[in-house]
Amino acid sequence: MGWSCTQEVSETLQRISDSMYAQSGSQNVWVVGGREFFFEISRREYANGQATGSVYEMYTDPTGCRRAHRIGTLAIGPNGRIRKFPHLPNKWK
Question: What is the C-alpha separation between 16 and 10, in angstroms, rounded?
Fold first, then answer.
């Protein structure tokens, strides 16, 4: 089962994903200052069409395994404006 959002949210997510793909080769991964991040959309339905999700940072643990920890949440309003998206470069907003 899928989820829905407004056209404006969809366009914002597409613009962000295109920028990430151009930088990292992945639609939800980006690098800032040598730090690697990724995001996941929650797939929760909102009556107003907004989107929310989580932002993670990748790291290597002491044993050499790649891991991720959640560093915050993202929120894109029904009008497509980014309300919150930790470490997302301003040029992509």
Answer: 10
